[in-house]
Specification:
Blueprint lengths: L1 E6 L2 E8 L2 E4 L2 E9 L5 E6 L2 E11 L2 E6 L2 E9 H10 L1 H4 L5 E3 L4 E6 L6 E2 L4 E7 L2 E6 L4 E6 L6 E2 L4 E5 L1
Antiparallel strand pairs: 1-2, 1-8, 2-3, 3-4, 4-5, 5-6, 6-7, 7-8, 9-16, 10-12, 10-15, 11-14, 12-13, 14-16
């Protein structure tokens, strides 16, 4: 089955046939398995392990955290993408309007300022969790409406950090 995956404004065509996954014309053997309690997963690509935290953030939207990096990915099958293009839904669809803490932690740094225009992939907030710094990035371009936290503040999972206009 073919999918269109969008991460940080970049679009990839991904074809999945069992354990064979083709991305940008290159085929890999890939398996995904539980690596602890949800959302912890282990992605094995061509024998190389990649630890992940995968959380569904909406229909076709996933929050992915791995090795201190965090992304929002939109995954659409060809049929859904085609329907969106016909109905104009693609233009209406945007990234999340609120960036939420993916885990409890301490706000180490804030890079977002109200009124600031940000590009997809721009760093917004750095959270320290389990002695690791995790930079949270914008999943889509937009303007910052409000920053709801301060440096040094402890946050809970799901707490609103940055709001987009």
């Amino acid at each position: 089955m073919k999918y269109i995956v969008t991460v940080a404004g970049r679009e990839f065509e991904v074809e999945v046939d069992g354990e064979q996954v083709t991305v940008a014309g290159r085929t890999h053997t890939a398996t995904l398995s539980a690596a602890g309690p949800p959302p912890l997963q282990q992605l094995l690509v061509d024998g190389r392990p990649l630890p992940l935290a995968l959380e569904r953030a909406g229909r076709g939207v996933w929050k992915i955290t791995s090795r201190g990096e965090r992304w929002d990915a939109e995954v659409l099958d060809e049929r859904t993408r085609h329907i969106r293009s016909l109905t104009g839904a693609a233009e209406k669809h945007r990234g999340p309007e609120v960036l939420r803490a993916p885990m409890p932690g301490l706000v180490v740094r804030i890079q977002a300022v109200p009124g600031q225009e940000v590009a997809a992939g721009a760093g917004l907030v750095v959270l320290e969790a389990m002695k690791m710094e995790n930079e949270l990035k914008a999943s889509a371009p937009g303007m910052i409406r409000a920053v709801h936290v301060r440096t040094g503040e402890a946050v809970e999972k799901g707490q609103a950090l940055v709001e987009f206009a």
